[in-house]
Amino acid sequence: MVYYFSGTGNSKWAAERIAEKTGEKTSDIALLMRGEEKKIIIASGEKFIIVYPVYAWNSPKLIFDFLRNVTLEEGATSCVVCTCGSEAGHTVSVLKKRIRLDGGYSVVMPDNYVIAFDVESREECLKKVAAARERLDMIADDINSGNLKFDVGVGKFAVLKTFIFSPLFSKYASGTKQFKTTWDCNGCGLCEKICPKGNIKIVDEMPFWFDDCMQCLACINRCPKRAINYGRSTEKRGRYFFDFTEKEIDEAAKIEKEKEEQK
Ligand SMILES: Cc1cc2nc3c(=O)[nH]c(=O)nc-3n(C[C@H](O)[C@H](O)[C@H](O)COP(=O)(O)O)c2cc1C
Question: Which of 146, 100, 149, 131 minimizes the C-alpha distance to 14?
Answer without folding.
Answer: 131
